[in-house]
Amino acid sequence: MKKISIFGATGSIGQNTIDLISRDPDAYDVVALTGSSNIAQLAADARRLNADVAVTADESRLDDLRDALKGAQVEAAAGQRALIDAACRPADWVMSAIVGAAGLQPGICALEQGATLALANKESLVCAGALILDTAARHNARLLPVDSEHSAVFQALVGEDLKAVERIVITASGGAFRDWPMDKLANATLAEASNHPNWNMGQRITIDSASMFNKALEVIETREYFGVSPDQIEVLVHPESMIHALVGFHDGALMAHVGPPDMRHAIGYALHWPQRRNLPVERLDLAAIGALTFRAPDEKRWPALRLAREVMARRGLAGAVFNAAKETALSGFIDGHLRFTQMAEVVDAVLNQIDPSHIDAPMTLDTVMVADHIARQTAQTIIEQTAG
Ligand code: NAD
Ligand code: MG
Prior knowledge:
single chain, 17 helices, alpha/beta, binds magnesium ion, 3 domains, binds nicotinamide-adenine-dinucleotide, Rna Polymerase Sigma Factor, Chain: A
């Protein structure tokens, strides 16, 4: 039996992971499931999957979790320390699907135990790519991409030599505002930004898709994971979300990964890797689809893409600063303190205003956390000035 843990089990990726393992319950021994506010879901899944421990990140909900688990043989725990402890429990395969930089530390702990880390939490690589890769190498642990684009690139590279790669093209649906007139963007509402045309995902990544901050994170994730240079990475707007990525080789070949917009493919690929197993995803009928379309991304509409290039050129801890500023600006938009277009302005301002010593510090978990913290404070101050 494969021992597995799911961090962020109550979210969109977590629930899709649970959907897959529930189809073959005898194959998995569930160690830990974690969530935050959705205690009922966390407890129900922990009971059904017979987990050793259920952890809520929200310290104040421990009693609720204990109540919800009454009579079950599942330990209840709460808070940041409990999350880390759960990540230290031996497991063969760990899904990292917490949203935001909060996923970084549990992921590092899982790698330190030598677990295979299925990484949906792209923020980890953006904040601390070198640290994550180095931790994996030192502990002989494997890191498998779960982002659909990165899983697609990973699959297109099977049997290939990275040195033969000329470019990596990741696609973007363009999100909710792909076809909106530019002058309407400033007045986009939360409900409008939370409505993705193709993918069913958590609210934060859905809004990040509309602003292309998600693609900006993914461009950096591509650089970190595959070790290619920034000028080898392209973004291609592809409204149908059927081709997830393409890898261009020196001989002119472009290998595309085509599949339905269903995260269970990328999750299942990482779950069964290096094998391929039957997965419950739609089989595409390309004749019925008829045509796939593509366009170049417009950096005026999506300034996040330009910011990603600046972050990659800046190197150091710029990724951690960028992600923390983005998370804070996103919360500012969700809470009604910022307009949609002001998110990119805040992130740009944080990158310019933060003391460069935070970006130039050598990368350790501590320096990443400090850069993250200072960037959040700086962003918060800018948001208050903007809103005030
Ligand atoms: P979600 O909002 O649906 O779920 C997030 C999960 O993280 C929940 O279980 C929540 O309880 C937990 N969580 C939230 N804040 C936390 C905190 N501070 N500490 C600990 N746990 C916390 O998010 P999602 O859409 O499932 O995305 C999860 C991750 O996967 C993100 O990094 C996202 O970018 C990435 N991802 C998601 C998709 C998708 O289709 N949803 C696709 C590619 C990558
Ligand atoms: Mg993606």
